[in-house]
Write a structure and sequence with these properties.
CATH topology of the largest domain in chain B: Rossmann fold
Radius of gyration of chain B: 27 Å
Distance between the termini of chain B: 90 Å
CATH superfamily of the largest domain in chain B: P-loop containing nucleotide triphosphate hydrolases
Function (chain B): Produces ATP from ADP in the presence of a proton gradient across the membrane. The V-type alpha chain is a catalytic subunit.
Strand content of chain A: 15-25%
Shape of chain B: globular
Structural class of chain A: alpha/beta
Number of domains of chain B: 4
Oligomer: heterodimer
Helix content of chain B: 25-40%
Enzyme class (chain B): translocase
Radius of gyration of chain A: 25 Å
Catalytic activity (chain B): ATP + H2O + 4 H(+)(in) = ADP + phosphate + 5 H(+)(out)
Largest sheet of chain A: 10 strands, mixed
EC number (chain B): 7.1.2.2
Strand content of chain B: 15-25%
Number of domains of chain A: 3
Number of strands of chain B: 25
CATH class of the largest domain in chain B: Alpha Beta
Structural class of chain B: alpha+beta
Number of helices of chain B: 14
Helix content of chain A: 25-40%
Pfam family, one (chain B): ATP-synt_VA_C
CATH architecture of the largest domain in chain A: 3-Layer(aba) Sandwich
CATH architecture of the largest domain in chain B: 3-Layer(aba) Sandwich
Largest sheet of chain B: 9 strands, mixed
Number of helices of chain A: 12
CATH topology of the largest domain in chain A: Rossmann fold
Chain lengths: 441, 585
């Protein structure tokens, strides 16, 4: 960003903390960007002539006579079709060695969609993973996070979902990605030959944490361009939102704000909602779907970050290692897609809702049989059958390595039900039983 | 000339303004930035400095930007045409805004100035009137919308003239009033009122006592709410708060339903926008949207306006109450409102209370709930505002400040329980922890004795005891094992399951089961209590579960059938046979 000739240069910084600098300046707008010794910063507080800047790269080595110039604009991104296939840092500058983007400059973190102009989401997003498509069907315009412990393969699952989903564009917002994970995404997208429909904004663990606050807004501004201007269906992947929230708490701490639950800022709910609510089905056909990752600590969903997220998003996907089959599965109890009702049995086969519910109910019976076993009570013959069913169900359908179409998932479901249960035990509507119950079982 | 000012400091949406004249607490002002007016409210004054919370993003605002104070608090505009509107938290008509995205500083007219209304006078020249007296009425979506003496008028007035019946626009003068000093005042169909002040133009506010039917059994039968009552629904995410709220707002026997979507998901409001214009009001046969007002300030809309939104919705409710109508207001969720208070208090650098919420949180909540109520108007008619708020407790922990403060003031408590939701026992209201204080009101007892019968409350209490004992027995069975307890225990447990499956659980997505009228609730309660009073004979515990599953299945089929149809009677007949199989003569 070249300095313009008439720009005033300030050289007297009066206060420096780990993340902020304060100086005297006049005529500065709130949220405006500034450069301090070449580092980008943003105005976060103005009291009279005292302007406080949040320095994204951290304030290490900033002297009191640092040169400060104000750029007269808030953080922005140049949008055009040239974005496709490119990798950027949190400021929207290319990091793949390619040329700068030419296009219209748009302020990031733009306005919200008028609720009366939204359309009800109705397009199914297929992923091939039965734990998702069968039990927690995704719909375009939905926002849903993976709740996962850091050791689980959420980035792999997300990359898989992204490539299989029939989205026109996939936008990756990486926050605090390890360099290895960043390269993983790059390779996967490259190998799949999908690079031309992918845009990535990446902040790795090598970059300063405060920078990642810009990543979701950058990613969503690009998404809005494609969804609004081009009427495309855009899938936005945000990983990892827990690290984003951590960065929020760092800044609020440096600003001497009073922390609320779990040392998170009191505005955490609004901050997260501003991002997730960008998911939308536009009336003109474009849509933005957000799939995010919220890492948990020890599976604790009562922590402020997953808790606030759960109240905002339309469900959540839970990954869990099933020790009975030795695979990572999509947990059918704790996962939920709030929008699945809009598509299942309607965009999918008629028996979808009933097969889904019957299988989950019997899987729950297996769980209680297991508890019984652990508590030293005897198992009935029925209990034993539910346990056998659960193993196959877990392996053939819930495991994340499954990749089949929805009809195949339903057929597999019927096969498993038929193999282990009597018709009266599954509690499915008679007319569907007549049509789908396996004959030779 | 009104007070002017200049911006002195900016921290997010908290702005310090140096004013050149008098400023009132809660006064509205406009900050001018690059040709756009940003609305803001004074929340603290210190010397010449006013601290204002801006209802919009302050991006680009500069020190020295001019500020214009309006001399009044945040007001709503009241008049015919409010029903079926979709407003934001500041009563801007969302449908009148251009474009897909909300524009900063885009304020739209909440009413339609050009619509003609068929006015019928109710007062005549020479009548003595006061604030909220009815001067005339227009038909608004089938409801009598009374045109009242503006609430701001103090003292007595004499009607000089009222226009004849005919078609008028809202800003036409429809009456001329003369005050005690002989001064004349023109009255139109429109008036304004500050949202943070309760409308108190009524004669008295007795303890509420009339049942407000919601069609939800676990509310009406177990823990009823009354016209003018207050209730709240706390629950962790995923326990069915929204489905329950939507069910109540669809079915409740109210004239007007005001929904404040306060800081929640936009797609949930979209569901209302999409469905309500299609659905029929079960009480009038008109479309549901015609009796509904939506105040939508979803989670991504400005935080300060979120705080205002619940007050806007409440003031609209009170306005319709003054017309002698039954209003139901739902707010989803009051926790988001409390969080908006917290964000502001934090920026003001106030000393925080528990969980960083402001110290006066419980006073603010108490004040708000106190605005609901059943009232007798000055003309002897009655009206009510029933208020049900949801609470989203952080981490599902009911010991957090918003839940606790609300529990002190709301008279009905509907606790949504994670384990019930996990077991798909919807609505997931825990029958034992939840309560309705109205069951203890002698006024309510008297009313319900007349409406249903004098045994009703005793039956409800007995039912709750059976549920409690069922729960105790189930805990013992879990510890001691199925064969570690007498068969009698299993019977006791299954009787409580019958109540759970047949009375408490209700399918919000089934056409018939979703809405149960009171007579039907009474019928089913008697049926179920009859089973609970019956002695059954079993050889071993293994027979008990499968037997009662058949009983429950038949009762549920009755729930799914239209009341008193042949189908319903067929299931009832089968049920009686099943009961006779095991009944001890």
């Amino acid at each position: 960003m070249a300095t313009k000739a008439f720009q005033k240069i300030y050289t007297k910084v009066t206060q420096i903390t780990k993340a902020t600098c304060t100086l005297r300046a006049e005529g500065i707008g709130y949220d405006e960007l500034a450069e301090i010794n070449g580092r980008l910063a943003q105005v976060v507080k103005i009291i009279g002539d005292d302007v406080t800047l949040q320095v994204f790269g951290g304030t290490e080595g900033i002297p009191t006579n640092a040169e400060v110039t104000f750029l007269g604009k808030s953080p922005s991104l140049k949008v055009s079709d040239q974005l496709a296939g490119r990798f950027f840092n949190a400021f929207g500058d290319p990091i793949d060695g390619g040329p700068d983007i030419e296009g219209q400059e748009v302020a990031i973190g733009g306005p919200s969609v008028n609720p009366v102009r939204r359309k009800q989401p109705s397009e199914l997003i297929g992923t091939g993973i039965a734990g998702i498509d069968l039990n927690n069907t995704l719909v375009s315009g939905q926002k849903i996070p993976f709740f996962a412990d850091p050791d689980q393969p959420f980035n792999q699952v997300m990359a898989m979902v992204a490539l299989r989903a029939k989205a026109d564009k996939i936008i990756l917002g990486g926050m605090g990605l390890t360099n290895d994970d960043y390269l993983f995404f790059r390779n996967v997208f490259d190998n799949a030959g999908a690079l031309d429909r992918i845009v990535s904004f990446v902040n790795t663990t090598e970059n300063p944490p405060v920078e990642r606050l810009l990543v979701p807004d950058m990613a969503l501004t690009a998404a809005e361009y494609f969804a609004v201007e081009k009427n495309e269906s855009v899938l936005v992947l945000l990983t990892d939102m827990t690290l984003y929230a951590d960065a929020l708490s760092i800044v609020s701490n440096r600003m001497d704000q009073i922390p609320s639950k779990d040392s998170m800022p009191g505005s955490l709910y609004s901050d997260l909602a501003k991002i997730y609510e960008k998911a939308v089905q536009f009336p003109s056909g474009g849509s933005i779907t957000i799939i995010a990752v919220t890492t948990l600590s020890g599976g604790d969903i009562t922590h402020a970050i997953p808790d606030n997220t759960g109240y905002i998003t339309e469900g959540q996907l839970f990954l869990r290692r099933d020790s009975d089959v030795g695979k990572v599965i999509v947990d059918p109890f704790r996962s939920l897609s709030r929008l699945k009702q809009l598509v299942i049995g309607d965009k999918t086969r008629e028996d979808h809702p009933q097969v889904m519910n019957a299988a989950i109910r019997l899987f729950a019976d297996a769980a209680s049989a297991k508890t019984k076993l652990e508590n030293g009570f005897d198992l009935t013959e029925y209990d034993q059958r539910t346990l056998d069913f659960a193993k196959e169900y877990s392996n053939d359908l819930l495991a994340i390595d499954v990749n089949i179409g929805t009809d195949d998932m339903l057929d597999t479901g019927w096969k498993l039900l038929g193999r282990h249960f009597k018709p009266e035990e599954v509690g499915i509507k008679q007319e569907l039983m007549n049509k789908y119950w396996p004959k030779e079982a | 000339m009104s007070t002017q000012g200049k911006v002195k400091g900016i921290i997010a949406n908290l702005v310090t303004v140096e004013a050149d004249g008098p400023v009132a607490q809660n006064e509205i002002c406009y900050l001018q930035t690059r040709g756009t007016d940003l609305m803001a409210e004074v929340i603290k004054v210190n010397g010449a400095n006013a601290f204002v919370q801006v209802f919009e993003s302050t991006r680009g605002l500069k020190i020295g930007d001019p500020v214009r104070f309006t001399g009044h608090m945040l007001e709503v505009t009241l008049g015919p045409g409010i029903l079926s509107k979709n407003y934001d938290g500041l009563q801007n008509d969302l449908d009148k805004m251009d474009g897909v995205f909300l524009k900063r500083g885009d304020y739209t007219n909440p009413l339609d100035d050009d619509t003609l209304w068929n006015f019928k006078p109710l007062a005549k020249a020479g009548d003595e009137v006061e604030a909220a007296s009815w001067l005339g009425e227009v038909n608004e979506n089938g409801k009598p919308h009374r045109i009242m003496v503006p609430f701001v008028f103090e003292g007595k007035y004499t009607v000089k003239s009222v226009v004849e019946a005919g078609e008028y626009k809202i800003n036409d003068t429809i009456a001329v009033l003369v005050d005690a000093d002989g001064k004349e005042h023109n009255v139109t169909m429109v008036q304004k009122w500050p949202v943070k002040k309760a409308i108190t133009a009524y004669r008295e506010k007795p303890r509420p006592f009339k049942l407000l039917e919601t069609g939800v059994r676990t509310i009406d039968t177990i823990n009823p709410i009354v016209e003018g009552g207050t209730g709240f629904i706390p629950g962790p995410f995923g326990t069915g708060k929204t489905v329950l709220q939507h069910a109540i707002s669809k079915q409740a026997e109210a004239d007007i339903v005001v929904i404040a979507a306060c800081g929640e998901r936009a797609n949930e409001v979209v569901e209302i926008f999409t469905e309500f214009p299609e659905l029929d009001d079960p009480h009038t046969g008109r479309k549901l949207m015609e009796r509904t007002i939506i105040v939508a300030n979803t989670s991504n809309m400005p935080v300060a306006a979120r705080e205002a939104s619940v007050y806007t919705a409440m003031t609209l409710s009170e306005y319709y109450r003054s017309m002698g109508l039954k209003v139901l207001m739902m707010a989803d969720s009051t926790s988001r409102w409390a969080q908006a208070l917290r964000e502001m208090s934090n920026r003001l650098e106030e000393l925080p209370g528990q969980d960083a919420f402001p110290m006066d949180l419980s006073a603010v909540i108490a004040n708000f709930y106190a605005r609901a109520g059943f009232v007798y108007l000055n003309n002897g008619e009655s009206g009510s505002v029933t208020f049900i708020g949801t609470v989203s407790p952080a981490g599902g922990n009911l010991k957090e400040p918003v839940t606790e403060s609300t529990k002190k003031v709301a008279r009905c408590f509907y606790a949504l329980q994670q384990s019930r939701a996990d077991g798909k026992r919807y609505p997931a209201i825990n029958p034992i922890e939840s309560y309705s204080k109205y069951l203890e009101y002698p006024e309510f007892e008297e009313y319900i004795a007349k409406r249903i019968g004098d045994k009703w409350i005793a039956s409800i209490n007995e039912l709750k005891t059976i549920l409690l004992r069922g729960q105790e027995v189930s805990e013992q069975i879990n510890i001691l094992g199925d064969d570690g307890v007498p068969v009698e225990y299993h019977i006791r447990f299954w009787k409580s399951e019958v109540i759970d499956f047949v009375i408490l659980q209700q399918d919000a997505f089934d056409k018939v089961d979703m809405n149960t009228p009171l007579e039907r609730q009474e019928y089913m309660l008697n049926k179920v209590m009859g089973i609970c009073h019956t002695d059954f004979q079993f050889e071993s515990f293994t027979e008990v579960g499968s037997y009662f599953k058949r009983v429950i299945n038949n009762l549920r089929q009755m729930n799914y059938s239209e009341f008193e149809t042949d189908e319903f009677k067929k299931f009832e007949e089968e049920l009686n046979q099943i009961i006779n199989e095991r009944k001890v003569a």
